[in-house]
């Protein structure tokens, strides 16, 4: 195991993050604060409570998920796309590092950054709403797993993308709608039965449901399904990445 | 002869487009030598290097570095290899020293600031260690690439056109660096379009065209061939054969007996020209014109490539 290589990639990527620390943190925190004001305060004054939880608090897990998902995707996809774009990928390909090691370096860095931002937003949320976390360990576990799995997914997007448009395409076209429709701002039990059934095909529902359960002890779907869904997704991403490195798809000619 | 440090065995590469860029390349590279690969644009030099280094997947054939297969045992093989690519590719916003340290780590070596300093000094980059890459000139960027390739102390270094777009002075600096590396025991394979460069620093010269090695020879032997001169003596009247008295000169008849060609060593103390001309006069051969010419490495090279292209040699 070339641990030195993993550490080198990780440190290099984190260096990039720290160079742009202001924009890395300010923009997600600012947009989340806006969500709190718009959804929590404006709409919350009408809805007040969802299943015994104040609406302002109810949307916190969804908001964190929204940010963490988009951050993981964009960090990881950009992290590997950039070397492809400027040509420095030659060094990764010629290094004595396995697919696992290269992926680990990039994905761990992307996930670390997303996790940090997720925690900062959680901290920010305490300024806006009264919040207690019922299962803090589960909460952290969900958060970490989500960061990891979506960083893996982002890594795949970064390898797949052949231009900047494609890099934005999947996050914009698939992930953001799935998160919005995944119960970030509502409980899917609030939907008509037909839409509830359709929602069950949205993988993000399982994520947000499980994460929200760790806060309030209430879930849209059984906890087991949430755990299974996120573990399955992680495995699928790892399998795809293993295949990419074995075949050299979009990396080696 | 010790076993080769790098052994290429019938390597072929057909790109996805169907283009055959390497056509059965076999080549053994000796430990500690400097090999210059010469070839026209598109000959397959970069493809050959990329295939050895793991950037391009070989279609068939096998490469070993110090006995390690570059596909099956890629980690052990790649640890020994440093690569300076033809195109400059660097993270523009990083500091010089950060990218060089990164390379060392990526290749699995523990951090060693003293060693990095040594390399940066050797490449006259130490003053620029904290500069951002984008603030450097083209020649400096190329040296950063070299520093990155050397950061993990490779035994084999590939330099893909290291002096392309580099001014004369810097080119000489680069040659010095290469000599220094050779003295340190590093094996160097460089590609170049400049014959002068190959002559100046390479122990052996290889000529590649259309994915095939056309020639591989000691530079000195090539130079010796180069040192051979030809004297073409035009005769006023054609002869059917070289007269017996001139048989000791190894003469060749050309142009239907109108021309006698004499090959001699320019550096020899006695070229034998004076005696030949006297002997010819004695043999009643009348000379109308004399011309001497030298076969240069350039000519050998152009000739080989032209021959390969199926054109008649001039
Ligand atoms: N990724 C690729 N896909 C398809 N064909 C390629 C690819 N890379 C190179 N080629 C082709 O392979 C041939 C050899 O290219 P290569 O870059 O190895 O040449 P070279 O000898 O390095 O040339 P130069 O002196 O210009 O650098 C060229 O005809 C080139 O067009
Ligand atoms: Mg080339």
Explain what you see.
The complex is a heterodimer of chains A (253) and B (314). Chain A is an all-alpha fold and 253 residues long. Chain A contains ten helices and two strands. In chain A, 79% of the residues lie in helices and 2% in strands. In chain A, strand 1 and strand 2 form a beta hairpin. In chain A, helix 2 runs antiparallel to helix 3. The two termini of chain A are 26 Å apart. A six-stranded mixed beta sheet of chain B has the order 6-7-8-3-9-10, with helices on both faces. In chain B, strands 2-1-4-5 form a four-stranded antiparallel beta sheet. In chain B, strands 12-13-11-14 form a four-stranded antiparallel beta sheet. Chain B is built from ten helices and 14 strands. In chain B, helix 3 (96-106) packs parallel to helix 5. Helix content of chain B is 33%, strand content 27%. In chain B, strand 9 and strand 10 (212-218) form a beta hairpin. Chain B is elongated. Chain B folds into two domains: 6-223, P-loop containing nucleotide triphosphate hydrolases (Rossmann fold, 3-Layer(aba) Sandwich), CATH 3.40.50.300; 228-294, Alpha-Beta Plaits (2-Layer Sandwich), CATH 3.30.70.1560. The mean pLDDT of chain B is 89. Chain A binds chain B through residues 2, 4-5, 7-9, 11-12, 15-16, 19, 83, 86-88, 90-98, 248, 252-253, and chain B through 15-16, 50, 53-57, 74-79, 81, 83, 85, 87, 89-94, 98, 101-110, 148. Adenosine-5'-triphosphate binds next to helix 1 of chain B. Residues 45-46, 86, 160 of chain B line the site of magnesium ion.
């Amino acid at each position: 195991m070339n641990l030195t290589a993993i550490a080198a990639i990780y440190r290099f990527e984190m260096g990039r993050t720290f160079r742009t620390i202001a924009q890395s943190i300010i923009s997600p925190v600012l947009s989340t604060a806006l969500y709190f004001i718009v959804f929590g305060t404006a709409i919350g004054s009408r809805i007040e409570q969802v299943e015994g939880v104040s609406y302002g608090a109810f949307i916190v897990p969804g908001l964190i998920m929204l940010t963490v998902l988009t951050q993981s995707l964009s960090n990881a996809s950009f992290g590997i796309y950039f070397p492809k774009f400027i040509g420095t990928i030659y060094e990764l390909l010629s290094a004595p590092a396995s697919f696992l090691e290269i992926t680990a370096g990039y994905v761990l860095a992307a996930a670390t950054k997303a996790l940090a931002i997720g925690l900062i937003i959680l901290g920010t949320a305490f300024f806006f709403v009264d919040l207690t976390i019922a299962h803090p360990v589960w909460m952290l576990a969900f958060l970490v797993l989500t960061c990891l799995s979506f960083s893996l997914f982002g890594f795949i997007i970064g390898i797949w993308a052949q231009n900047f448009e494609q890099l934005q395409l999947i996050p914009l076209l698939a992930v953001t709608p799935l998160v919005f429709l995944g119960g970030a701002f509502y409980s899917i039990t609030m939907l008509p039965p037909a839409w509830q059934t359709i929602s069950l095909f949205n993988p993000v529902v399982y994520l947000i449901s499980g994460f929200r359960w760790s806060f309030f002890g209430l879930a849209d779907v059984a906890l087991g399904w949430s755990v299974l869904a996120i573990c399955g997704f992680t495995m699928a991403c790892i399998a795809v990445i293993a295949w990419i490195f074995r075949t050299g798809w979009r990396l080696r000619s | 002869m010790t076993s080769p440090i790098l052994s290429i065995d019938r390597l072929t590469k057909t790109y996805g487009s169907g283009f055959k860029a390497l056509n059965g390349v076999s080549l053994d590279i000796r430990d500690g030598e400097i090999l210059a690969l010469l070839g026209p644009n598109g000959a397959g030099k970069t493809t050959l290097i990329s295939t050895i280094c793991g950037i391009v997947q070989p279609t068939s054939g096998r490469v070993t570095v110090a006995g390690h297969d570059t596909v099956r045992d890629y980690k052990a093989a790649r640890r020994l290899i440093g690569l300076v690519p033809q195109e400059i590719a660097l993270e523009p916003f990083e500091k010089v020293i950060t990218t060089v340290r990164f390379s060392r780590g990526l290749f699995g070596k523990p951090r060693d600031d003293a060693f990095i300093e040594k390399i940066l000094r050797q490449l006259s980059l130490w003053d620029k260690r904290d500069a951002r890459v984008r603030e450097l000139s083209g020649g400096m960027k190329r040296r950063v690439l070299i520093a990155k390739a050397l950061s993990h102390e490779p035994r084999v270094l590939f330099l893909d056109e290291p002096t392309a777009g580099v001014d004369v002075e810097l080119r000489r600096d680069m040659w010095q660096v290469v000599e220094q590396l050779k003295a340190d025991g590093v094996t160097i394979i460089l590609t170049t379009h400049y014959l002068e460069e190959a002559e100046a620093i390479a122990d052996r010269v290889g000529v590649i065209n259309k994915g095939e090695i056309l020639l591989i020879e000691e530079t000195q032997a090539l130079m010796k061939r180069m040192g051979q001169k030809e004297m073409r003596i035009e005769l006023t009247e054609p002869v059917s054969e070289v007269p017996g008295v001139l048989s000791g000169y190894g003469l060749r008849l050309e142009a239907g007996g109108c021309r006698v060609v004499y090959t001699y060593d320019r550096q020899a103390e006695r070229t034998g020209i004076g005696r030949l001309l006297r002997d010819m006069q004695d043999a009643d051969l009348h000379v109308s014109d004399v011309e001497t010419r030298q076969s240069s490495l350039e000519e050998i090279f152009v000739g080989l490539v032209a021959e390969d292209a199926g054109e008649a040699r001039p």
